[in-house]
Specification:
alpha/beta; six-stranded mixed sheet; three-stranded mixed sheet; 17 helices; 12 strands
Length: 417
């Protein structure tokens, strides 16, 4: 057994047979996600008159392992709810999530131990059982949204309409969370629905369906123009949304495609290879563009397309809206240079600047001339300083002149005598 945090060998589980110590190197006794469990196993059914290598292959060990795992999960389940959240879940929550992915036979038991953040409370985490108890009438699925932190998920365009209608959404804020939910086909008869993927069906009434059909017919020219002209190489199709209220458009993955969060995680894998055909397939899948028919930008774009499908301004607007939808949906822009150019064009237009206005050149020659002048001035100052020093050294004081003249007078007197 190895500790999941340090990778060092640990001897948490010890095997005894009729109170005779056999070994503490029982790597198959407990699964890796329960490596934090300490215990002693004493069996009366295992043979003593065989080697340890033979004993480790005994069929009874599989039965013991199965009972140990269930016993450990039952003990965890009995922990007080406050102690469980304050101490156990903070320390070993990731282990439980990994157990859901690895241990298929105990997946239902482990699912009851899961805790996630939710739109129901700003800080407290909730269990799946509590979520189902709070579900609205006729709600058939458990809604969840994954992202890099709670603030990002709360502001995601995919949860706008769900929250407005009073649905509770689970916030998956850790990298392993989305893997965990994908490993759970359902919980208590309720299937999971990633709100960033296709399959979200909120409007189920007859009146809502008729309203949606009318909107689809009204915006059919825009959806067709986006698919076949403006964004023909970038999207799979354009449809009317059921999940947006304030955002004009968003990119939605297919039911078996990558969400923006999953794409970010997969691209950050250390073992990722550029030649991986499976990853390239998912990464290059075209997404569905969902447009919000109630947004003024979409209405104005529809009017422009109905007036002229060759309107260059409408094409530019559609491309910028697509780029913003890529970013808001959690994906990475493939052509960042083209996106920056379009933004610069919009800035030029808003500031009434001609895009062809030349950029002012750097005054390189002027700087060199100024440097030469500074050097000349510095040389002149040095020359003046040297002259002053020489002048000071050749000038004599009156006392020094008197001292030099006295011997000369004495010599003249002596000559006269």
């Amino acid at each position: 057994m190895y500790d999941s945090g340090t990778g060092k060998k640990v001897d948490h589980m010890k095997l005894y047979v009729r109170r005779v110590f056999i070994t503490d190197d029982m790597r198959e006794m407990m699964p890796s996600y329960l490596s934090f469990v300490y215990g002693v196993v004493d069996s009366d059914d295992l043979p003593l008159n065989v080697s340890r290598e033979t004993l480790q292959q005994h069929k009874l060990l599989k039965v013991i392992k199965k009972k140990l795992v269930r016993k450990a999960l039952d003990m965890i389940k009995k922990i007080d709810s406050e102690v469980y959240m304050d101490k156990f879940w903070k320390q070993f929550g990731t282990n439980i999530k990994l157990g859901v992915i690895e241990d298929h036979s105990n997946r239902t038991r482990l699912a009851k131990l899961l805790r996630f953040q939710s739109s129901d409370h700003p800080t407290n985490q909730t269990s799946l059982e509590s979520y189902i108890e709070r579900m609205k009438d006729k709600q058939e699925k458990i809604y969840f949204c994954a992202g890099n932190g709670r603030e990002e998920v709360e502001n995601s365009p995919f949860v706008e309409r769900l929250l407005k209608k009073g649905y509770e959404v689970l916030y998956l804020t850790e990298p392993v969370d989305e893997y965990t939910i994908q490993a759970l086909p359902e919980f208590d008869g309720k299937r999971f629905q990633n709100v960033a993927k296709e399959g979200l069906d909120i409007d189920q009434g007859e009146v809502a369906k008729e309203r949606k059909e009318a909107l689809e017919k009204e915006f059919e020219p825009l959806a067709k123009w986006l698919k076949e002209s403006a964004l023909k190489d970038k999207i799979e199709k354009a449809v009317i949304t059921e999940r947006l209220t304030e955002t004009p458009c968003a990119l939605v993955a297919s039911q078996y495609g990558w969400s923006g969060n999953m794409e970010r995680i997969m691209k950050a894998q250390a073992y990722k290879s550029q030649a991986d055909s499976s990853n390239n397939f998912y990464a290059n899948q075209k997404k569905t563009l969902e447009i919000n028919p109630r947004h003024p930008l979409i209405k104005t774009l529809l009017a422009k397309v109905e007036a002229s499908e060759d309107d260059e301004q409408a094409t530019t607007i559609a491309q910028v809206m697509f780029d913003t939808a890529v970013l808001r949906s959690g994906y990475a822009l493939k052509d960042q240079v083209d996106f920056s150019k379009r933004i610069m064009q919009m800035l030029y237009k808003n500031l009434d600047i001609d895009p062809n206005t030349p950029i002012e050149e750097e005054p390189a020659e002027v700087e060199e001339a100024e440097e030469d002048e500074e050097e000349v001035d510095a040389d002149d100052e040095e020359d003046e300083g040297e002259e002053e020093v020489v002048g000071e050294t050749t000038t004599e004081t009156p006392a020094e002149e008197a001292a030099t003249e006295a011997p000369e007078a004495e010599q003249e007197t002596h000559d006269e005598l």
